[in-house]
Write a structure and sequence with these properties.
Blueprint: E1 6-10, E2 13-17, E3 23-27, H1 28-33, H2 40-50, E4 54-60, H3 61-64, H4 66-75, E5 77-84, E6 88-89, E7 95-97, E8 111-126, E9 131-138, E10 141-145, E11 150-167, E12 187-189, E13 192-194, E14 205-210, E15 212-213, H5 216-222, H6 224-230
Parallel strand pairs: 9-14
Antiparallel strand pairs: 1-2, 3-4, 4-5, 5-11, 6-7, 7-12, 8-9, 8-10, 8-11, 10-15, 12-13
Helix pairs in contact: 5-6
The structure holds fe (ii) ion (FE2).
The site of fe (ii) ion has 5 residues, from strand 11.
Length: 234
């Protein structure tokens, strides 16, 4: 799928380039300030030792890339990409992997994430069922996010680039994560992944799964009405 964006590797991370590229970024200090990290102690120690870091950057392709803007205007679906950097929120090599803040949609619309580069874990929390699914994604994989879930991405052993398709009207509620984080996190410990439970939550079930590849991002350009249906739009 060619979105008109150049993705370059730089060490463990990815750089995104296209004409008139502009994005907004989320820093480690903000994640600490809002208490959405697993261990505030480790996070504050890391910040003290190494200074602030860009955890992720979001680029609104629907604002700048002509063919994406055209489809976005036609369908009412936004197309963004998130560049999630690699990092561990700890002064040691082991700890919580860098993540996106996490949110729930204000209106009950689905969203499709497609992994363009790297490796990620999608953490999806269904509060009404007290259940978390952690889904491992590799390049080319896509996931349909359920309308009521609170969702967040963690990087794997590298950074990642994720494309998202979501109705413009969906909205973002970050308050459902603020001050508590998510019931489960993703850690790298002795070079292995772990999924520790957040003590701020009680009795939440955890399921691990793998994502599979999909063509929804291509369908956005070829058969947009099908994508609208998939996302719960009329
Ligand atoms: Fe979302």
């Amino acid at each position: 799928m060619d979105l008109g964006v150049e993705i370059k590797e730089q060490g463990k991370n990815y750089l995104v380039n296209y004409e008139n590229a502009s994005g907004w970024m989320r820093s480690l200090s903000r994640l600490i300030e809002d208490e959405v990290v697993f261990s505030l102690k480790d996070a504050r120690e890391l910040l003290k030792q190494k200074g602030d870091a860009v955890v992720y950057e979001v680029f609104n392709l629907w604002k700048t890339i002509p063919k994406v803007r055209e489809m976005s205007e036609k369908t009412g679906i936004n197309c963004d990409i998130t560049v999630l950097n690699y990092g561990v929120i700890s002064p040691s090599d082991s700890g919580e992997l860098f993540f996106t803040y996490g949110h729930r949609h204000e209106k009950e619309y689905s969203e499709v994430y497609t992994l363009l580069a790297g490796e990620v874990f999608l953490v999806s929390y269904e509060e009404s069922r007290q259940k978390v699914t952690v889904m491992h994604m590799e390049k080319g994989d896509e996931v349909l996010i359920s309308p009521s879930s609170i969702h967040r991405l963690h990087c794997g052993r590298n950074g990642a680039v994720v494309a998202g398709l979501v109705p413009k009207e969906a909205g973002h509620d970050y308050n459902v994560v603020k001050g508590r984080g998510m019931p489960y996190s993703v850690f790298l410990k002795d070079n292995k992944y772990e999924y520790p439970k957040n003590p701020r939550f009680k009795d939440v079930e955890l399921e691990l799964s793998d994502a599979s590849s999909g063509m929804t991002l291509q369908s956005f350009f070829d058969t947009p009405d099908e994508v609208k249906k998939l996302l719960g739009m009329k």
